[in-house]
Amino acid sequence: MIPPRLAPFVFGLVLSGMMSCIVSLVATYRALGMVDGFFGLWISAWLFSWAVACPAILMLGPVVRQLVARNTAAPKG
Question: How many CA atoms lie within 13 A of 51 on its CB side?
């Protein structure tokens, strides 16, 4: 089991992996279509995207949480 103190890192790792996977798949398909070697091209794009997305999410996560907290009302009741 993963210690709770690592939860934000694990969340960022998993979220960035999933999002970069989806976005790179769509972008690669839109740019190239279903060409020979598509899978290899997409995986290459995904790994590079994930390497950029993970640190970005880990750095921007706390900023986004603060922005959202400041701009949302607490539930009444």
Answer: 6
